Amino acid sequence: MKTSLRSELSGLVFYMGKWVLLALAVAALAGSASAFFLFSLEWATATRGAHRWLILLLPLAGFAVGWLYLRFGREVEAGNNLLIDEIHDPKKVVPLRMVPLVLGGTIVSHLFGASVGREGTAVQMGGALADQLTHVLKLKHEDRRIILMAGISAGFASVFGTPLAGAIFGLEVLAIGRLRYDAIMPCLIAAIAADQIGLWWGVHHTHYVIASVPALSVWGIAGMVIAGAVFGLTGRGFAAATHALGGWMKRRIIYAPLRPLLGGCVVAAAAWWLVADRYIGLGIPVIVEAFQQPLAPYDFAAKMAFTVASLGSGFKGGEVTPLFYIGATLGNALAPLLHMPFSLLAGVGFVAVFAGAANTPIASTLMAMELFGAEAGLYAAIACVVSYLFSGHNGIYRAQRTSAGKHQPAPSGTE
């Protein structure tokens, strides 16, 4: 008995030591890459603001990025979906070229005015950099799965400053209805350390404030259920529209670089002639406004249109920050209808639309608590879970599998 216990404890110590070291290595790579990326985004956004005419060059920028991916990046064009596929069915190490391609492509997208996010870039860099350790350390398939998940967690945590949400995101995003607990310690360590490394490099994350959180009441719960349903349907519509436009353009336009060129023409013309600069780029200032004052009720729809056009035509970046924008402004618009504080509905919408579109209600709830405080956690949890239920079995990540149905048996053909 004593021998068995000693053997178990020694195995556990070896396991923990091994994954602490590996997770810290992943965190150093992902956290540093995210810090450089965030500083580059600040430069790109400030430069575009100072030289608005750059928006007119968006079509040419889109063509250039499209050509680079056609020439050098066909193996990594799937982005986040490639990482998820490699975790489910390991085949070959993710090419390192994914890092400079997605980094450069995203900075170019923001510099010239596409409406894209940043999570996709950070996650892809984190995953691709982590996977290079597979070569160096000759990792087995099962270890490679875990290190890829740790890279995803580290990238997500360091770009948003939300280590708990990042840790769970790496476990939750892979399949609807299943968490991979065998990777929970590496993902947690990688997420926490990557966030701290980003802060060490001097990264500053936006601070969002929910002015007041009312005591939980029957109407408060009912309001969150109603809002959660709207947020879930919005996330579902966003994912469907983005996939539909992307599929249509691939069928109609064979030469890939022409897709972002055409999409860039549409986005640039709309942004320039309608003076719609608030709907391009990350849109962080507008998200902050949604917590402070009433906004135009159509802001969420306009941002959705610009983002669908940008991502659907092939611009690089991510979906999550635009989803934060859409959710915060939609929540702002719903607040007077539901007789609830603007800042509370903006915060809840911020995370709940993402929860529905990405099928990650637990990570989204933890994100709300990390960004807005624990007091908002109950409201966010209700809205995120309802949003998740209303968003269907498809989301922004096509490679995400369905392990268990949300409210009925899983659709046929899924895992």
From TrEMBL:
Spans traversing the lipid bilayer: 20-41, 53-70, 146-171, 183-203, 209-233, 253-275, 340-359, 371-390
Membrane protein topology class: Multi-pass membrane protein
Record bears the keyword Nuclease: no
Localization (cell): Membrane
Keywords, in A-Z order: Membrane, Transmembrane, Transmembrane helix
InterPro entries documented for this protein: Cl-channel_core, ClC, ClC-type_chloride_channel
Leader sequence segment: none
SUPFAM superfamilies referenced in this protein's UniProt entry, alphabetically: Clc chloride channel (SSF81340)
Record keyword Transmembrane present: yes
Pfam families named among the record's database cross-references: Voltage_CLC
Chief location of this protein within or outside the cell: membrane
PANTHER family for this protein: CHLORIDE CHANNEL PROTEIN CLC-E (PTHR43427), CHLORIDE TRANSPORTER (PTHR43427:SF12)
Protein name in UniProt: Voltage-gated chloride channel family protein
